[in-house]
Amino acid sequence: MVAHEVLPQSPRVGRVQIRLRLTDASRKPLTGAEIRLEGNMSHAGMSPVFVDALEVAPGEYRANMDLSMAGDWVVLVHLTLSDGAKLERQFEMTVLNAEDVR
After folding, report:
1. Which residues touch 17 (CB under 8 Å, ≥6 apart)?
2. Could you state, in order of their start, the residue ranges of all structural domains in the chain?
3. Model pLDDT for residues 14-28, shown as the tens digit of each residue
4. How far apart are the first and last CA of the chain?
5. Which of 8, 41, 53, 69 could be bridged to 61 by S-S, CB 3.0 to 4.6 A?
6. Contact 70, 97 (CB under 8 A)
7. Where are the beta strands (DSSP E) in 1-102?
């Protein structure tokens, strides 16, 4: 299972932190994964943003992603597990301009 959280809760233009939690079917943390995140705007014309996530605790990974524009983003999570298995997940987020967050 791959669970994600984006901080701040209302993502805004600039740096956001993406937290990922990886667990197996019995909810045991999955350690030693290699994770690359790819952020894409939902409309054409923007270059993707790539960052690697680092393991900060067993099964918990974090990455900082710099988002240059407000709008709808899709984040692709490219995972290589410690046994070599490859997985992909994705999630969406709406990024606001700082002045739109109150």
Report:
1. 6, 7, 62, 63, 64, 65
2. 2-100
3. 999 999 999 999 999
4. 33
5. 53
6. yes
7. 2-7, 14-22, 34-41, 49-57, 60-67, 71-80, 86-95
User: Which residues face 28 on adjacent strands?
Assistant: none
Supply 33's token pair: 């994964």
Q: CATH code for 2-100?
A: 2.60.40.1080
Q: What secondary structure letter does DSSP report for 12?
A: B
Characterize the bridge pairing of strands 60-67 and 14-22.
antiparallel
d(CA 89, CA 78): 7
Residue type, 76: L
Contact (CB, 8 A) for 68 and 84: no
| Tokens, residue 64 | 């900082």
* Half-sphere exposure in the Cβ direction for 42 (13 Å, CA): 11
Model confidence over 27-60: pLDDT tens digits?
999 999 999 999 999 877 788 999 999 999 999 9
Q: Which helix (H) or strand (E) holds 30?
A: none
